Amino acid sequence: MTGEAADPNTAGTPAAADGAGAGAEVIRVERVSKRFGPVTALRDINLHVARGEILGLIGDNGAGKSTLIKILTGFHRPDSGRILFEGTETRLRSVAHARSLGIETVYQDLALIDGLPVYLNLHLNKELTHGPLPFLRRREMRRRAREALDSVGIEIPSVTAEVGQLSGGQRQAIAVARSVHSDAKLLLLDEPLAAMGAREGTQILRLLRRLKQRGDLAIILIAHNYSQVVDVCDRVNLLQHGEITFDRRSADTSVAELLELVHAEYRVEA
Amino acid sequence: MAEAETHAAATPAAAPGPGAAPPGATPARGPGAALLSALVRRRELSIVLVTIAAVVYFSVAGGKGFNTTNNYHIIMQYAAPWAIIGGAEALLLICGEIDLSAGFVYTFTPFVLTSFYDAGATVPFALIGALAVAAGVGLVNGLVRVLFNLSSFITTLGMGFFLEGMSYIQSRGEPTQPPIGGGLQRVIGGWRWSELVWALAIIAVLQIALSATRYGVYTQAAGGNPLSAAESGIKVGRIKIATFVVTSLLAGFTGILDQVRVGSFDPTSGGNTTMFMAVASAVIGGTALLGGSGTVVGALFGALLLGVINDGFNLIGVNAYAFDVVIGIAVVVAMLLNAYLASLRKRALR
Ligand SMILES: Nc1ncnc2c1ncn2[C@@H]1O[C@H](COP(=O)(O)OP(=O)(O)OP(=O)(O)O)[C@@H](O)[C@H]1O
Ligand SMILES: [Mg+2]
């Protein structure tokens, strides 16, 4: 796994210079722009995350955070710019393609199917089947679903319950468990804590730290709670009106500074 | 399908499992409660019970005539085509679509077979060609729906009119004799019960596809929440197109099957009546029009119930128009009942 970073392609990119293993760059976004009709959602975005690193992405509503995430999942295609995955320029053709590369996502809308049971949601689009036969291995999926949920440490009454019956926090926990319980190399979390109570939120943050310690995973975390961001992330990027205006290590910033940056914009206008 | 029982373990509302009641647990609440919880969990059960009730009623009210092999055969003639097309419509409804042209695919496909035959194709090739054309109709329905994001209601309504016209043009408005004979004829409709065997086999395959394969999961996901399905990498458009193709293919096959049995390809057969009865079968059987969930087997029982009522009314001499009145009421009542059972199910699972 660690050997891949020696790929000659990586030599060209400056941030990949810090070598193989933990710290090698997983994703780099260069000058990516995206428009929706008249709306410019993203303008010349540059961003990078390395193995074992958690990048916090903050910004106001409508700043373009989810759009950026959806470009990295292959859901949207960028209008311009390029994306390097593990040092190689990669055109993400579809969600399935991005997933096959090891990009897993907790979408802001969670991407759960309310009418399906928990265990099928946890295996959505990676259902287990009996080898060459197309039939579902429901029992095995139920077993693994229980395991995945236990590992996240969130209580779900039953893996056979329909997801639509669960609370907002439980639904988020399922989406997190689904993305975490995979062979992901890049984990994209779009406000995974928004509906969670204090205890559950802490559980998830602890889980993220554990994943980080594993060292082989790059994580982008979007959150509106800046103290959580400063607490768990290694680095923070601020997205304002489709542009990244701030990139600093968490150790070198503070909640107060982030709040000041975000509010400054409005103070000037007022 | 299989998780119906496992729900029981986790939900307090379900009846206690055999021998599993721990001391101090809720005592069994008698057969009434057990039946109610089964009704809530198995969406097909209510329609099965209503069908049994209808059979019992007509066995009594219809006199000796009802329980005879000949009468069963008549019921089959009604129910089999509705069941096959209704099973396919159930899948379409589950993935959030509907096919209003299926009845005219039923009408049109036999004439395609005749055209191929008249052009010199052997019967098996004419049959395969006709089925390919039927599948092609579904492909067009699906592509127009997905590529132009046009509602399937409009797309298939237009296709229905188009095929109705084409059927009259092809047949010049006259019924023709099917060019099929021998063993093939017996297999596709000629043998007395062949339509029943086909209907049961097709329903079984469709239900297994729905409840035991990835395709079934994707169909439910595509109808339940298309955006979430797409975000998970499911090719929603492909699932819908495939289901349109299956529906048209089966509607075309049913047209050939049914009209070979009758012994005449008739441009006035099928059409909107067949389509409505198929959709009604699916809905009465427990598939909501909202998408996301449903049952193919339910459509079989929906078709059977409609067949039994239709036949029973004939037997006891009720005016044929009354049948339509009953269908109208049955569809609405079935919808209300489904909505009610769904809300009960939600409460039971909470
Ligand atoms: N599919 C779309 N079609 C048209 N416009 C879109 C689409 N998706 C996003 N936008 C627009 O792009 C801009 C950025 O939206 P985005 O969802 O990325 O913001 P966000 O930073 O995630 O906001 P929030 O904090 O509210 O989640 C908004 O102006 C939004 O209206
Ligand atoms: Mg967002």
What does this molecule look like?
The complex is a heterodimer of chains A (270) and B (350). Chain A has a six-stranded mixed β-sheet, sandwiched between helices. Chain A is built from eight helices and ten strands. Chain A has 270 residues and is of the alpha/beta class. Chain B starts with a helix and ends with a helix. Chain B has a single domain, classed as Orthogonal Bundle (ABC transporter involved in vitamin B12 uptake, BtuC), CATH 1.10.3470. Chain B is globular. In chain B, helix 13 packs across helix 14. Chain B is built from 15 helices and no strands. Chain B has 350 residues and is mostly helical. The N terminus of chain B is likely disordered. Chain B: Its main location: membrane. Chain B: Keywords: Cell membrane, Membrane, Transmembrane, Transmembrane helix. Chain B: Pfam families: BPD_transp_2 (PF02653). Chain B: It is found in: Cell membrane. Chain B: It comes from Actinocrinis puniceicyclus.
Layout of helices and strands, plus pairs?
The complex is a heterodimer of chains A (270) and B (350).
Chain A: E1 25-36, E2 39-50, E3 54-58, H1 65-72, E4 80-85, E5 88-89, H2 95-101, E6 103-106, H3 118-122, H4 138-152, H5 168-180, E7 186-190, H6 198-214, E8 218-222, H7 226-232, E9 235-240, E10 243-249, H8 255-269
Parallel strand pairs in A: 3-8, 3-9, 6-7, 7-8
Antiparallel strand pairs in A: 1-2, 1-4, 4-5, 9-10
Helix pairs in contact in A: 4-5
Chain B: H1 3-10, H2 30-41, H3 45-61, H4 69-94, H5 102-118, H6 123-147, H7 152-171, H8 182-190, H9 194-212, H10 214-224, H11 226-231, H12 236-262, H13 271-284, H14 296-315, H15 320-349
Helix pairs in contact in B: 2-15, 3-14, 4-9, 4-10, 4-12, 4-13, 4-14, 5-6, 5-7, 5-12, 5-13, 6-7, 6-12, 8-12, 9-10, 10-12, 13-14, 14-15
The complex binds adenosine-5'-triphosphate and magnesium ion.
